[in-house]
């Protein structure tokens, strides 16, 4: 009955078993059922009917697995509003100080980019396992706060916490963001000492770090020595070459990637189109844009169209760039219109400039007047 009112999907087998014993305090069945229906329980919280569920559970500590699973769901979906509701309920029920729940709260707030809240909770957490440090390091790095990310890593070292295979790739990303080659080399040593030299994510992060720090030769050596590669490996190496104007190597790697049976994704085509733009390879750019959708089934996004507009704008083909923007399926953003306007002003295309300004600023004015 609960499942039928809350979701159109049929109730699973575990849901039927749970419903048959709904008046009994079957905590294990409850938590198993939760994993099938956590969206249903989130809807209970939203509608303030969660007290009906809690009537089945008199002891607060029995609720810990229940709320831990809900917090995991918030981390996966990055749903801040639900996270705050669940946090409030853990305080009301007196389980927010539980070490396991507090750890989950830190991780969830970090996943939702709420670093102030995550840090406060982290400071009150008695047990600070490796995965908590990883969550904070990753959260800062994802917001391009690379120095702060490395500060958390330093705290982790001082606390003598062990690394796992998820720790060092994010640290290497922060080193790359700061072009901190010497620190990146030290982290490379830590990768080898801790036995992560053959781990794919760590190897990809090393290639990214050396590429962004300008050591393309060493990045390529790492690439060639890898016994296993994926689309991220190829895309990272291509992006490194493209960043330093090595367009020929980008196209060569793309061909090797396809020959190796790896399927290019959106990131791969961003690297290739960016190389076409910087190298002035107009025909190749058109070819790759067509290829990505027709041959590989990858729909072009804003990054790809921005590369194309930039590429066409560099050689003065702003009319073609304008037509490309008008027929694309995604909505243009400021960066895309800005790239076109910049090309118009560089090449003195006043008519196109007026049309673009009318579309961009005209819409804003009409929207402001309607409000």
Structure characteristics:
disordered C terminus, 371 residues, 23 helices, disordered N terminus, 0% strand, mainly alpha
Task: Describe this structure in a few short sentences.
The protein has 371 residues and is mostly helical.
Strand content: under 5%
The total of beta strands comes to 0
Instruction: Report the average pLDDT across residues.
Output: 83
Secondary structural class: mainly alpha
Oligomer: single chain
What is the chain-wise order of helices and strands?
A: HHHHHHHHHHHHHHHHHHHHHHH
Note the gap between the termini. Answer: 45 Å
Q: Give a short account of the largest sheet.
A: none
- Shape verdict: globular
How many individual helices?
23
Question: Radius of gyration in whole Å, from Cα?
Answer: 26 Å
What does this structure look like?
With 371 residues, this protein is mainly alpha-helical. The chain is 73% helix and 0% strand. It is built from 23 helices and no strands.
How would the blueprint of this fold be written?
Blueprint: H1 2-6, H2 13-20, H3 27-36, H4 38-46, H5 50-54, H6 64-77, H7 80-92, H8 99-111, H9 115-124, H10 130-142, H11 146-158, H12 167-177, H13 181-193, H14 200-212, H15 216-225, H16 231-243, H17 247-259, H18 266-279, H19 282-294, H20 302-314, H21 318-327, H22 334-347, H23 350-370
Helix pairs in contact: 2-3, 3-6, 6-7, 6-8, 7-8, 8-9, 8-10, 9-10, 10-11, 10-12, 11-12, 12-13, 12-14, 13-14, 14-15, 14-16, 15-16, 16-17, 16-18, 17-18, 18-19, 18-20, 19-20, 20-21, 20-22, 21-22, 22-23
């Amino acid at each position: 009955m609960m499942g039928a009112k809350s979701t159109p999907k049929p109730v699973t087998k575990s849901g039927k078993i749970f419903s048959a014993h709904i008046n009994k305090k079957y905590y294990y069945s409850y938590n198993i059922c939760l994993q099938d229906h956590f969206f249903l329980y989130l809807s209970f919280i939203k509608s303030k009917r969660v007290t009906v569920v809690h009537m089945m559970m008199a002891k607060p500590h029995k609720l810990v697995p229940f709320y831990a699973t809900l917090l995991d769901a918030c981390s996966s979906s990055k749903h801040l509003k639900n996270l705050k509701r669940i946090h409030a309920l853990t305080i009301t029920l007196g389980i927010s100080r539980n070490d396991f729940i507090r750890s989950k709260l830190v991780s969830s707030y970090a996943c939702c980019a709420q670093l102030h809240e995550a840090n406060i909770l982290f400071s009150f957490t008695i047990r600070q396992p490796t995965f908590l440090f990883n969550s904070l390091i990753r959260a800062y790095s994802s917001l391009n706060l690379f120095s702060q990310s490395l500060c958390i890593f330093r705290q982790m070292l001082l606390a003598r916490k062990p690394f796992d295979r998820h720790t060092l790739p994010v640290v290497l990303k922060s080193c790359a963001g700061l072009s901190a080659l010497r620190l990146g080399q030290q982290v490379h040593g830590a990768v080898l000492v801790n036995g992560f030299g053959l781990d794919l994510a760590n190897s990809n992060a090393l290639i990214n770090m050396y590429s962004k720090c300008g050591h393309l030769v060493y990045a390529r050596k790492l690439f060639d020595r890898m016994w296993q590669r994926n689309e991220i490996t190829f895309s990272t190496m291509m992006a490194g070459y493209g960043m330093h104007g090595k367009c020929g190597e980008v196209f060569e790697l793309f061909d090797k990637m396809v020959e190796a049976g790896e399927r290019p994704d959106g990131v791969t085509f961003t690297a290739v189109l960016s190389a076409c733009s910087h190298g002035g390879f107009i025909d190749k750019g058109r070819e790759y844009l067509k290829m990505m959708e027709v041959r590989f089934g990858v729909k072009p996004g804003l990054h790809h169209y921005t590369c194309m507009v930039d590429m066409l704008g560099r050689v003065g083909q702003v009319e073609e760039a304008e037509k490309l923007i008008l027929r694309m399926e995604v909505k243009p953003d400021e960066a895309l219109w800005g790239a076109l306007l910049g090309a118009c002003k560089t090449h003195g295309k006043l008519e196109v400039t007026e049309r673009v300004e009318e579309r961009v600023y005209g819409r804003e004015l009409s929207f402001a007047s309607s409000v």
